[in-house]
Design brief:
The chain has 573 residues and is mainly α. 72% of the residues lie in helices and 3% in strands. Strand 5 and strand 6 (335-336) form a beta hairpin. It is globular and about 65 Å long.
Length: 573
């Protein structure tokens, strides 16, 4: 998942408003994308929520009458509160550790110059673009018996899940806090030092309050990602009582208790919305603070020993699981070699009655991701254009602001919730669509649209409005202005958004795990199945398949970052 796309603000700078006719045309262009989100996001999520508060008949179908007995029953269980407490506790621990490691790493990587700084920044930021199932498999390779740290006994424990959360999310803190730290004027802290303050006191009284908005925003985002880390929890073995998201999956896929799953979905949604609201408030303050400029880099000194050590620890935390994943993927019961990779093309895994091979699942993933990318672009391009158009009408600007805010919801709502919503709405009301396999790329597109829009908006916002005005003065109509002025920027932005959408869809696991047919699994779903089956060959294939998926996802995402214009990416946190 692209971190810059997640944190780049979608609201464009103020520009001269367009004419009323042009504004009406742009609003009309947004009808189809908005209808897509209403049908494939709002309706499934609402259907899921209704399952938790509606009465049911003897067949288990909603009756249409309000009935909160399911809430009373689920909330009356001690297990529910243990699951909620474990979810919040693991998310809080993952957030605290991510901030503790990310804050000094942000300082070293954004305020100090040293050999290898660019490479180390890339290493620290890589985990966030990896599919969650890959992160889970990497930590299994590191901590499982026979792994480099198997002696710790942390495999399939709560501590292992928290470590994986930190691995996955420390880059959020480094990127978001580091961007603000790089823009701070160092003379204020230097003035405090001149007046006799120690380095620690100058940091606590001057620098830390300035970093407050970005730090709070990063912590809110990390908490959100930790609380909805379904792929990590699922692949690492659902320690203890599990989490809200893993319980939704268990109640749906194992017990077929959709009503109980809906109640857990509502609880999970409440946690997510609270984190999204906090993140939105702090992000606005951080964006205003980022307009400060860029502070010069200074070389590392002896006084930087503590943050440098913390940064080295962060790099080790990132490299160790990935190295363990790659190295152990070449080891099988027959010794070192390519056996695990050879099995990817010849075996569906032992213990499976038929099924597809991992390479066939990868082919299915690629086809599904390509379909999802097409759908994502058809929806996100009109939305991005609509969000970057100036409007003279106050009502039109209100619609634009409302749409901008609404696009945060698919980003904040868990993919597990989206997948469950598809199960209780579209799969029931449109069985032909479900049988065709089209629900999988549609669900992946719902997850990818907010990311694609936030990749496109900064690129389109970089267009100098005077170029459009000059084109209109010379007699060009709206279509020609769009083609000749916005067109070159839009083409590059479309390539960026398409890459993001493809990589996100390729590794999507939460919604896909609910919707993928047994005979058409994607590679992340098949990896999870292989981990759930005993046998050395199954485990070896899971390692090899996760390595292939990691290389493909990281390669696509790094290529996307090279497409990003500097002026488009600098504004993001």
């Amino acid at each position: 998942m692209p971190l810059a796309a997640l944190t780049t603000p979608a609201r464009p700078p103020r520009r001269r408003p367009a004419g009323t006719g042009a504004g009406a045309g742009w609003l009309a262009a947004g009808v189809v994308p908005v209808a897509f989100l209403l049908v494939f996001f709002a309706w499934p999520v609402a259907a899921m929520l209704w399952r938790g508060v509606a009465g049911v008949d003897v067949a288990g179908d909603p009756t249409g009458a309000l009935d909160l007995s399911a809430f009373a029953e689920v909330l009356g269980r001690e297990r529910t509160w243990r699951i909620l407490g474990q979810t919040l506790g693991m998310a809080a621990a993952g957030t605290a550790a991510s901030v503790a490691l990310g804050l000094p790493a942000a300082f070293v990587l954004h305020r100090r110059a040293f050999p290898g700084r660019t490479l180390l920044r890339a290493v620290v930021l890589v985990p966030f673009v990896l599919p969650t199932v890959v992160v889970g498999v990497a930590f299994r390779a590191l901590l499982a018996p026979g792994g480099p740290f198997g002696w710790t006994g942390l495999d399939q424990t709560t501590a292992a899940v928290v470590l994986a959360m930190v691995f996955f999310n420390v880059s959020v803190v480094v990127r978001q806090v580091g961007a603000l730290w790089a823009a701070l004027d160092p003379r204020q802290a230097e003035a405090a030092r001149t007046l006799g303050a120690s380095p620690t006191r100058a940091f606590l009284t001057v620098t830390l309050p300035q970093l407050g908005p970005a730090l709070a925003g990063a912590a809110a985002l990390v908490f959100l990602f930790c609380a909805s880390a379904f792929g990590i929890v699922q692949t690492l073995g659902r320690p203890g009582y599990g989490t809200l998201e893993s319980e939704i999956w268990v109640q749906t896929a194992v017990y077929l208790d959709l009503r109980t799953a809906a109640v857990f979905s509502i609880l999970q949604l409440a946690v997510v919305l609270a984190a999204v609201a906090l993140s939105g408030v702090t992000a606005a303050r951080a964006r205003r603070a980022l307009r400060l400029g860029t502070a010069p880099l200074r070389p590392l000194t002896r006084t930087d020993a503590l943050p440098a050590a913390a940064t080295a620890l962060t790099g080790a935390l990132v490299l160790a699981p990935l190295a363990a994943l790659v190295i152990r993927s070449f080891r099988s019961p027959e010794g070192w070699g390519l056996r695990n990779y050879t099995l990817l093309a010849t075996s569906p895994g032992t213990g499976f009655a038929g099924g597809v091979t991992p390479l066939e699942a990868l082919e299915q993933s690629a086809r599904t991701a390509l379909d999802a990318t097409v759908v994502t672009l058809l929806v996100s391009v009109p939305l991005a254009l609509l969000l970057t158009r100036p409007f003279r009408s106050r009502a039109a600007r209100a619609v634009q602001r409302a749409l901008d805010g609404a696009l945060l919801l698919p980003l904040g709502v868990s993919a597990v919730t989206v997948g469950f919503g598809f199960v209780v709405s579209l799969r029931v009301q449109a069985p032909e669509l479900a049988a065709s396999g089209a629900l999988v790329p549609i669900a992946q597109a719902v997850v990818a649209v907010p990311l694609a829009v936030r990749a496109l908006v900064p690129v389109l916002a970089a267009v100098d409005p005077r170029l459009r005005e000059a084109a209109r003065t010379l007699g060009a109509g709206p279509a020609r202005v769009l083609a000749t002025v916005d067109g070159p920027f839009l083409l590059r932005g479309v390539g960026l958004a398409a890459g993001f959408a493809f990589a996100v869809s390729l590794g999507e696991f939460g919604a896909t795990s609910f919707l993928a047919a047994a005979d058409r699994p994607t590679l992340p779903v098949l990896i999870a199945r292989l981990l759930g089956r005993p046998g050395a060959d199954n485990y070896g294939m899971a390692l090899a398949a996760a390595t292939v998926l990691a290389v493909l996802s990281a390669g696509v995402m790094l290529a996307c970052e090279r497409l990003r214009p500097r002026e488009a990416g600098s504004g993001g946190i």
